Amino acid sequence: MARVFVYGTLKKGQPNYKHMINTAKGLAKFQGRGRTVEKYPLVIAGKYNIPYMLNIPGTGHHVAGEIYSVDDQMLQFLDEFEGCPDMYQRTLMSIEVVEWEGKGGAGEARAAAEGVVECFVYSTTTYPPEWVGLPYHDSYDSSGKHGLSYVLRESR
């Protein structure tokens, strides 16, 4: 099992969460909530209002999201879904645990107690330079006050 941190449309209550709970795509077990240890710019960009975490450590905010434990099948699905490695790149990042529900072995309990876990995160280094000038967010909600509702793939 791998640990994945999601900060955008795959979170609970967001437009693509349905994929996280679709066992035909693999298993994803909610572990808790967290935020990036380093600051990153989280922007909403493009004509479909997609959330992107720009891989510029030290700039922006500590980005909030959810931590999942996923099997290889779900990780492969997420790679395809996220357009990895062209649109997003899957990299390991340190995530500060804010709230932990995960149940597991001693390693899981120790990681949660220490307050920081390593997770795969889909961020991007391949973006137009003007995205750096967009507003930065510390958390994402498709129906947030930014007014930039995400456009589902089936509606594009």
Automatic annotation (TrEMBL):
<comment type="similarity">
    <text>Belongs to the gamma-glutamylcyclotransferase family.</text>
</comment>
<feature type="domain" description="Gamma-glutamylcyclotransferase AIG2-like">
    <location>
        <begin position="4"/>
        <end position="105"/>
    </location>
</feature>
<dbReference type="InterPro" id="IPR013024">
    <property type="entry name" value="GGCT-like"/>
</dbReference>
<keyword id="KW-0808">Transferase</keyword>
<dbReference type="GO" id="GO:0005829">
    <property type="term" value="C:cytosol"/>
</dbReference>
<comment type="function">
    <text>Catalyzes the formation of 5-oxo-L-proline from L-gamma-glutamyl-L-epsilon-lysine.</text>
</comment>
<dbReference type="InterPro" id="IPR036568">
    <property type="entry name" value="GGCT-like_sf"/>
</dbReference>
<dbReference type="GO" id="GO:0061929">
    <property type="term" value="F:gamma-glutamylaminecyclotransferase activity"/>
</dbReference>
<dbReference type="GO" id="GO:0042219">
    <property type="term" value="P:modified amino acid catabolic process"/>
</dbReference>
<keyword id="KW-0456">Lyase</keyword>
<dbReference type="GO" id="GO:0016740">
    <property type="term" value="F:transferase activity"/>
</dbReference>
<dbReference type="Pfam" id="PF06094">
    <property type="entry name" value="GGACT"/>
</dbReference>
<feature type="active site" description="Proton acceptor">
    <location>
        <position position="82"/>
    </location>
</feature>
<dbReference type="InterPro" id="IPR009288">
    <property type="entry name" value="AIG2-like_dom"/>
</dbReference>
<dbReference type="InterPro" id="IPR039126">
    <property type="entry name" value="GGACT"/>
</dbReference>
<protein>
    <recommendedName>
        <fullName>Gamma-glutamylaminecyclotransferase</fullName>
        <ecNumber>4.3.2.8</ecNumber>
    </recommendedName>
</protein>
